[in-house]
UniProtKB/TrEMBL annotation:
SUPFAM superfamilies: P-loop containing nucleoside triphosphate hydrolases (SSF52540). GO terms for biological process: tRNA modification. Residues 37-40, 162-166 are annotated as: Interaction with substrate tRNA. Keywords: ATP-binding, Magnesium, Nucleotide-binding, Transferase, tRNA processing. This is tRNA dimethylallyltransferase. Its cofactor is Mg(2+). GO terms for molecular function: ATP binding; tRNA dimethylallyltransferase activity. Belongs to the IPP transferase family. It comes from Acinetobacter gandensis. Coiled coil: none annotated. Its EC number is 2.5.1.75. Monomer.
Amino acid sequence: MSNQLPVINLMGPTASGKTALACELFERGNFELISVDSALVYQDMDIGTAKPTKAELEQYPHHLIDIISPLEVYSAANFVEDACVLIDDMHARGKTPILVGGTMLYYKALLEGLSSNLPSADYAVRAEIEEKGECEGWDAVYAELCSVDPLAGEKFKVSDKQRIIRALEVYKLTGQPITKLQAEQPKNLPYRYNFHNYALLPDRLELHGRIAQRLKIMWEIGFLNEVKGLIEKYDLDENLPAMRSVGYRQALDFLRNSDLSSEKQREMEDKALFATRQLAKRQYTWLRSLQETHKFTTYLTAKQAQEDLRNCYG
C-alpha cells in the first residue's frame, strides 16, 4: 500500500450536501476536485443539474464539468479514462484528488474496473431497443433479453431498464451475451490508487424535503426557460442521454407534447419531483451495493462528515 497514492471519493444521493462538503475540504488542504456526475458533463445544462455557479467554479474549480454538448454521449469508460489522467496529473503535482458526485456507476467503474473490449454505446441501437419498450412494453424487451442471455435475465428485473438496454445493445453489436464477454475479459483495475470512500446518507424524509426545496428553487429561477433555450439551440431527442437526466425529460415532454396550461405544468413538476426521489432511491441502493465489497465511512449529516474529515485532512 505504501506506493499507492490517496484518492478521496465523496459520494451520496442528490441534495445530500456533497458539493458543499467537498468545497469546504478544498479550502482546508492541498486538494483538487473532480466531478463524478453524468449530468454535469453537459454544457448549457446548469439549473436542472444543480451545477455550481460560475462564481463557485472560479472559487472551487471542478474538473469534468461542461466538457461536452447535450447531443454527445459520455460513458462510464470515458469517465474512468478521463479521471485516471486527472488523478495521475494531480498526484504528480503533489495534490490529493477529491472525487465528488452521485453517479454511482462511475464510482463502481473506477473502484472495480470495466470489462475491456466491450463495445461503446450505440445511440441508434439503444433508440431501437427503447422504441420496442415503448411500443410493445418492457416485458417484451425483457423476454428478448432472457432468450439471448438467460444469465442476464436471472440477474436483472424488468424494471432494470438501463441494464437491460445495455445487455441487449452488446448482444446486438457483438452477437454474444454480455455476461459471457464480462466473464471472459480481463478488468482494467486502477491498482495504483488507495481509495478513501466516504458517503453522506441522510435520513430519507429529510432528503425528500431537501429535494422538494431544491426543485422549487429551480423552477423559480428559470429551469423551464433553460430547457426552452436548449430546444432552440440543439436538435434534441428525448432518447439522448442528456435528456434522460431527471427534470429535463419531464420538462421537454411538457414543452413539446402538452397544452402548456398551469395544470399540465403542475403535473410536470410533480413528475420531476417523483423522478428525483426515485433517483435518490437508486443512489442509496448503489451505495449499499458498493459497501458490500469496499471499505466505507458513512455519515448521516454533512456536519458530522465535516468534523471527522477535518481531523483526517484539515
